[in-house]
Design a protein that fits this description.
- With 328 residues, this protein is an alpha/beta fold.
- It contains 16 helices and ten strands.
- The strands form two sheets. It has an eight-stranded parallel β-barrel, surrounded by six helices.
- The two termini are 30 Å apart.
- The mean pLDDT is 97.
- The protein binds flavin mononucleotide.
- Flavin mononucleotide binds at residues 16-19, 21, 41-42, 71, 98, 100-101, 141, 171, 179, 202-205, 225-228.
């Protein structure tokens, strides 16, 4: 059993923080479909302390998604402390510090995210001060290092543990790799072996088999999944079934379409119209995956902005496939 504060987790599968993807509707769906812990997308500490509406909106949590972690990012220790306190008021189970975002605007220009890897003193100050500023357990998500020649994940894992981080997620890439190349799980194992806090492995878990392989061959305490969950939101429950039975259950068309409708309803409820429909477009591919004529149907759905036609088209598609869809 892995414990983080009051959370007791049995070989947890975690939904990764993903900007514009890990919003409340998707987090709720992933929890229903087997994720044990979900994280919000990263939230700007500067935006939080300035009451920026879009940042505060990202702190809205629903009971059905718990346990949930709010991830914050920034380069200024004072600002991160204040932002962590604001995030804590939103009532998550965890606060996560982003030490991995590779983008130019975050990492290079402002020195936040993976940029902290090049400024160890600042990185340590942020983690230490945030840990002491809030009562909630603080976790850190990071990368192997800035580039191939400066991989310091083992040293950093020990540092984060010493500073009071309660768990660590390691994405097995450097900042220079962005999201290209392959995640190196050997480094994740080395980080795990170096500390006694829980270490979650992340990067390139694409299906149930790879999730379980990361547990069994690399010794991690948990597996965090990002793109694999967008491509297949059932990955969490499939991985659990695979662990128990050695078989990966197939998801039938009825469940795929019913889940698609449920998620769309949540998206509309949370975001209103037309945003709830437009921002849902990135999920059609995952829900229609492997269904007959999926790409043609998806192209039609992608052009729609009103909910009525989307619901009608999915209903008609269900009839074409000979299934009936109720709410999931
Ligand atoms: C669209 C997108 C947005 C992301 N946004 C964040 C973020 O806000 N915070 C973060 O720590 N990582 C972010 N990531 C990185 C993921 O959390 C994860 O570390 C990475 O995608 C590797 O895992 P995967 O192969 O399972 O996707 C993002 C990744 C993607 C694809």
């Amino acid at each position: 059993m892995t414990t983080i504060g009051e959370l007791a987790l049995d070989r947890p599968l975690l939904l990764a923080p993903m900007e514009d993807v890990s919003d409340q509707p998707f987090r709720l769906m992933c929890r229903r479909l087997g994720a044990d812990v979900v994280y919000t997308e990263f939230v700007s500490s500067e935006g939080l302390i300035r009451d920026v509406r879009v940042c505060l909106e990202k702190l809205r949590l629903a009971d059905g998604e718990r346990p949930v972690g709010i991830q914050i990012y920034g380069a200024q220790p004072d600002v991160m402390v204040e932002a962590a306190r604001i995030a804590e008021q939103a009532g998550p189970e965890l606060i996560d510090i982003n030490v991995g975002c590779p983008t130019k605007s975050v990492a290079t220009c402002s020195g936040a995210g993976a940029g902290l890897l090049r400024d160890p003193e600042r990185m340590a100050a942020i983690v230490e001060r945030v840990v002491h500023a809030v009562d909630l357990p603080v976790t850190v998500k990071t990368r192997l290092g800035w580039d191939h020649d400066s991989i310091r994940i083992v040293e950093n894992a020990r540092l984060f543990e010493r500073l009071g981080a309660r768990a660590l997620t390691v994405h097995g890439r450097t900042r220079a790799q962005q999201r290209k190349g392959e995640a190196d799980w050997q480094w994740i194992r080395r980080a795990k072996e170096a500390v006694s806090i829980p270490v979650f492995g992340n990067g390139d878990v694409k299906d149930a088999e790879s999730a379980i392989r990361m547990f069994e061959e690399f010794g991690v305490d948990g597996v965090m999944i990002g793109r694999g969950a967008v491509a297949n939101p059932w990955i969490f429950q499939q991985a659990k079934a695979y662990r128990e039975t050695g078989q990966v259950p197939e998801i039938g068309p009825e469940e795929k379409l019913a889940s698609c409708l449920t998620h769309l309803e949540l998206s509309i409820e949370y975001k209103g119209l037309p945003r709830g429909v437009i921002e849902f477009r990135k999920h059609y591919k995952g829900y229609l995956r492997d269904l007959p004529l999926a790409s043609a149907v998806r192209s039609e759905l992608m052009a729609m902005t009103e909910p009525g036609p989307v619901f009608d088209r999915i209903d008609a598609y269900a009839s074409e496939l000979g299934v009936s869809v109720g709410a999931f």
